[in-house]
Amino acid sequence: MIVRGSPLASGCEWMRLLAKYGTRDYNPDPMSHQINIGDRRFFIVSEPSGEEWRAQVLELVDDKGSTRDFGIVTTGETRGLADERALGVLHHRLRHV
Questions:
Q1: 17 and 47 in contact (C-beta within 8 Å)?
Q2: Which of 26, 54, 57 is nearest to 40 (CA)?
Q3: Is pLDDT at 53 greater than 50 in this prediction?
Q4: Would you say 42 and 31 are in contact if contact means Cβ atoms under 8 Å apart?
Q5: How far apart are the C-alpha atoms of 63 and 67, rounded to whole Å?
Q6: CA distance 29 to 11
Q7: Which of 12, 48, 7 is nearest to 26 (CA)?
């Protein structure tokens, strides 16, 4: 499933994992998007950091919008690359739980 505005190509490994493990819905905030994996919800929050982008994973802990830091921070030359790396680390960590 390709989401409008996604910087990723449909054939990449990231999209294959996304189709297998969850769905992605964009949050109204353009610097973050929500990842649903099973019954757990995460936000990947991106921001410019010098000449690179920094992505951080937060877990949504309740319906009121409370989050907790999931301990994943990645960087990349583009926002898409930083987000892709964060999602890869998230999937890797969840597989080993």
A1: no
A2: 57
A3: yes
A4: no
A5: 10
A6: 26
A7: 7
Task: Give residue for tokens 């892709």.
Answer: 84
What is the spatial distance between Cα 18 and Cα 1, in angstroms, rounded to a whole number?
Answer: 8
pLDDT digits 0-9 by tens, 40-49: 999 999 999 9
What's the token pair of residue 74?
């990645």
Neighbours of 87 (CB within 10 A): 26
Task: Find out whether 55 and 73 touch, Cβ atoms under 8 Å.
Answer: yes
Q: Tokens for 17?
A: 């994992």
User: Which tokens in the block code for residue 64?
Assistant: 């009121």
**Which stretches of 1-97 are assigned E, i.e. beta strand?**
22-26, 32-37, 40-49, 52-60, 67-76
Tell me how crowded residue 90 is: count the other CB atoms within 10 A of its CB.
Answer: 23
Mean of the per-residue pLDDT values of the chain: 77
Residues sharing a CB contact under 8 Å with residue 4, sequence separation 6 or more, in sequence order? 26
